[in-house]
Amino acid sequence: MSTDLSSRTPAARGRRFWSWLPTGADRRVRVAGWISFITELMIIGTGGAVRLTGSGLGCEWPLCAPDSLIPVAGMGLHSYIEFGNRMMTGVVGLAALAVLILVLRLRKTRRDLWWLAVVVILAVLAQAVVGGITVLTGLNAGIVGFHFLASLALVATTAAFVVRAYTEPGPRALVVPRGHATLVWVTAGMTVLTLIVGVVTTASGPHSGDDSVVRHLLNPDIMAHVHSAPGYALLALTLAVVAWASAARLATLRWGIVLLAVLVVQIPVGIYQARDGLPALAVGVHMMLAGMAAAAMTVLVMRVSAPVPPAAAAAGSAAPVAAKVE
């Protein structure tokens, strides 16, 4: 009886839970990573819905109403849309926390996964605070833009976690020619520039997040043309990456095609929204595609290198393991 009781103590439960935690990047870690990535992508959609329906000030902060965490009768639809996005923040936080817990025992053997998980959970907490500051500052354009860029960075970080969860640990080496790797890195830089200019362009447009907030920033028509320049440059660079990878059968081919496919959809949507007065639905689709582009670009960058075989690592060699797609 005493043995049975001792197995039910908090310490015993803690030991059982610790022994249950993964000691490698198993299916639990990968599934949790995918869930975290998907929720980060989804919150771009719910955040966009808040802004594009004018619901940005639908709730107060930190409570939704003076004496209530949730919307109360009479507050209207905007409050429920804003509160729904706050609930989604909780889902994102729980997903990030689950990933962090699952990699607790991997802190030394998979430091890459551990630190990516730490960055995500800290960034999610910071994003919640930034969201509150956004409301308190009356939807300041700079804060709103930073909030969106941070969301894109989180999508990229969770995508990196998923990629690494399927990759063996250890030293890495290029698996493509250095010139091709440089081209991919330049394309990544152009992706970042395109996203930043896109955020400034959107901030200059009519969708401030609330009908009472009127923006007097840059001319949105001019900014649409400015935004198109890095957008087309990104398309040209991506085409070059795909052409080179296809000709040489490089490991970057698959994800170069994925990025290209996203851009082939995203650019026409951008042209349509610029020519038709920035309709809310088109802007929302454009925002989601931006998240997908950030994720695809992240995976593409990570495909330029791969783990060095143990024998080569032991010999101090940094030779690529494979330079071609299978």
From TrEMBL:
This protein's pathway: Porphyrin-containing compound metabolism
TM spans (from-to): 87-106, 113-136, 142-163, 183-204, 224-245, 252-272, 278-301
Its membrane topology: Multi-pass membrane protein
Primary localization: membrane
Keywords: Cell membrane, Disulfide bond, Heme biosynthesis, Iron, Membrane, Metal-binding, Oxidoreductase, Transmembrane, Transmembrane helix
InterPro entries named in the record: COX15/CtaA_fam (IPR003780), COX15/CtaA_HemeA_synthase (IPR050450)
Pfam family, one: COX15-CtaA
Cellular location(s): Membrane
Official protein name in the record: Heme A synthase
